[in-house]
């Protein structure tokens, strides 16, 4: 338990470039969401990023609809327990 709290504090104070190399389980993500990156979905993703959510992955969703294969860009975002963005701003950025 103490080791887990120590790691959490380290990731809260780490520069953004270091945080991006950590495994997902060390980022202390408490919520995940997926959004399409077209039109309204992109606006929602931008809003979440401004609120401190982290962009974790971008991929192309391929699906079959009306006998046609379609593709849609998608994003997976994670909400950290404590906002890394606030820490980065306080430390002068990366």
Describe what this molecule looks like in 3D.
With 94 residues, the chain is of the alpha+beta class. The protein has one domain. Helix content is 36%, strand content 35%. It has helices spanning 2-13, 16-19, 40-50, 84-90, and strands at 29-36, 54-65, 68-80. A three-stranded antiparallel β-sheet has the order 1-3-2, covered by helices on one side. A hairpin with a 2-residue loop joins strand 2 and strand 3 (68-80). Mean pLDDT is 78; it is low at 85-91.
Relative helix content = 25-40%
Percent strand equals 35-45%
Largest sheet: 3 strands, antiparallel
Low-confidence stretches: 85-91
- Give the ordered list of helices and strands: HHEHEEH
Number of helices: 4
Give the overall shape.
elongated
Mean of all residue-level pLDDT scores: 78
Structural class: alpha+beta
Strands in their spatial order, largest beta sheet: 1-3-2
Count of all domains: 1
Please provide the count of β strands.
3
Distance between the termini: 30 Å
Rg over alpha carbons: 16 Å
Question: What's this entry about, in short?
Answer:
This protein has helices at residues 2-13, 16-19, 40-50, 84-90, and strands at residues 29-36, 54-65, 68-80. By secondary structure, it is α+β, with helices and mostly antiparallel strands.
